[in-house]
Amino acid sequence: MSTILKETRLIMNQYHIKANKSLGQNFLIREEVIEAMIDSSQIKKEDLVIEIGPGLGTLTKNLLKKAGKVICIELDKNMINILENRFSNEDNFEILNQDVLKVDLKNLIETKKNTGEIKDVKIVANLPYYITTPIIMKLLEEELPLQSITVMIQKEVADRLIAIPGEKETGSITYSVYYYAEAQDIVEVPKESFIPEPEVTSKVIKLTIRKEPPVNIKQKDTMFHIIKCAFMQRRKTLLNALVNTKVFSSKQEGIKILEQLDLDTNIRPEKLKLEDYANIAKLTHK
Ligand code: SAM
Prior knowledge:
Blueprint: H1 3-14, E1 27-28, H2 31-41, E2 47-52, H3 58-66, E3 69-73, H4 77-87, E4 93-96, H5 105-113, E5 120-126, H6 132-141, E6 148-154, H7 155-162, H8 172-180, E7 181-189, E8 194-195, E9 202-209, H9 220-232, H10 238-244, H11 251-260, H12 274-284
Parallel strand pairs: 2-3, 2-5, 3-4, 5-6
Antiparallel strand pairs: 1-8, 6-9, 7-9
Bound molecules: S-adenosylmethionine.
S-adenosylmethionine binds next to strand 1 and helix 3.
């Protein structure tokens, strides 16, 4: 039995813990996966690492050895007790008993950065899968001063997030991730790497936040609104989807705009580059 598995079982027995399914609790028990997450996030002593959902603290233990400061955000009070007992002696450890979706991360990061001890801020987490997308969108859309986000998520979602727009797995979220970050596929993680086993295969991905967006657009909100409309009706052509959702005031206007941009009038939403959506936004923005 691996050391991590033994340690996990021991802690669970000691504290009478049963994984809470509704909180997405699947505890990591594979050393190699933890190493891959730590190595790919390239943590330095002057980094602040924010860990979302530390659970029993398996990843936390390794993060504390590498980072200048680790702030854990955990919703489950039972976990807080365990984490405090395990790590409160470490002076770079801090914990918040909160729902990550409700935390004012901008303010939290600013406060830590103002101490002058922190240079870069990184997110490292084995995310609760029931809220993967809202967490990632919060981290990106709030335009936090992050350097990178290294997370374990469901493989199916991971493949959509890291696709280059236009590739097979493209969904509307692909464009958002691509706008804010460069994505990397780190490692695929089988179900047996957790207790209890999740229902799906997982993947670790790394998003490195871009310093400049890949398209230059003032009407960013319009562009993302158009992308959302395009994918609301996935089996439709882009033209029909954007006419139905009133992005184009008429079919004639839509055809004119698509022809102006050298796009086939029968093109499907997932075939467009981000730049194409940016151009449609510029032409339709009133
Ligand atoms: N990091 C641990 C590991 O790798 O073994 C546990 C990961 S487990 C997949 C997800 C963790 O997120 C759980 O500890 C769960 O309690 C916590 N969690 C669930 N919802 C949360 C939320 N809204 N905010 C913060 N933490 C949450």
